[in-house]
Task: structure prediction
Amino acid sequence: MPYSKFTLEEVLTNFNLQLVENFGKFNKLPDVIPSKFLQEALEYYLPLAVAIASEKARSEFIIAPVLAEVKKISNNQIGLFSGIEFNVNPELGLNGFCDFIISRSTLQTIIQAPIVTLVEAKNDNIKSGFGQCIAEMVAAQIFNQNKGNEVSKIYGAITTGTAWQFLELEAQTIIIDLEEYSIKNLPKILGILTSFVS
Result:
């Protein structure tokens, strides 16, 4: 069963996770001002992505530029992967493609531990991505453990490009921030994402 087949209920049951809901968990993180380049790019790309209204358009025209900005802000000290196969344990259903993976390694040719953030693109319904994103986060946790490079927390994001929701996995506890962060508040989104990789 690939990541995309998991529902929220299934992933919680299958991996014995405790769910905690928290409104505004990441809201107090400091903002990061976007570059002029990103602001101008989104000014042009945002209406285009919304008009096309497909996951691929939102992924390419909104999400990828935002994540590339995070890589730039981190002085290229992270690896950023898009649309890559991430097969950790097919027997547990932890296999398939991830929209975006961020690691704390500078390597770009292979995924290197530790993986710290996974970002899942959705066309319109963020909630429908919870199961898939959490399954990918569990896979990252196992991947890091298998490589002997454990980090205490794995972060996730589910986004339509215009709306973002964030998650945190620590041990067996998954926290979902119920607040939706709008692309109109881009400094807040960049602040949250850069905090995940620092």
Strands lie at 18-22, 79-85, 97-103, 115-121, 153-159, 163-170, 173-177, 181-182. The first helix runs from residue 8 to 14.
